[in-house]
Write a structure and sequence with these properties.
The chain is elongated. A hairpin with a 4-residue loop joins strand 1 and strand 2. The longest helix has 17 residues. 7% of the residues are buried. By secondary structure, the chain is of the alpha+beta class. The protein is built from two helices and four strands; from the N terminus they run ααββββ.
């Protein structure tokens, strides 16, 4: 029984590691939005956290944070700062 549970856990872990999206996937997800600088990625092997700064139409900075897992991106934090 323990061996079966360990195999399932290892298989799940392997799926999470393989489907952890990389930088090129994230840039494709963002599309043509104008970046203030490059996105920063913190890789936790089974998921990643991306932080990115944008320049908005009214010339303010928009900071967004995304959680990436299983090939998907989820916005988790947004903050706006005036220049």
């Amino acid at each position: 029984m323990k061996k079966k549970i360990l195999c399932i856990f290892c298989a799940l872990l392997l799926v999470l590691v393989i489907t952890n999206p990389g930088n090129s996937s994230f840039m494709g997800f963002l599309g043509e939005r104008e970046l203030n600088n490059d996105a920063t990625r913190t890789n936790y092997f089974v998921f990643s956290v991306y932080k990115v700064d944008f320049i908005t139409a009214d010339n303010s900075d928009l900071k967004e944070e995304y959680f990436a897992i299983l090939g998907q991106f989820y916005k988790v934090k947004v903050s706006e700062e005036l220049r």
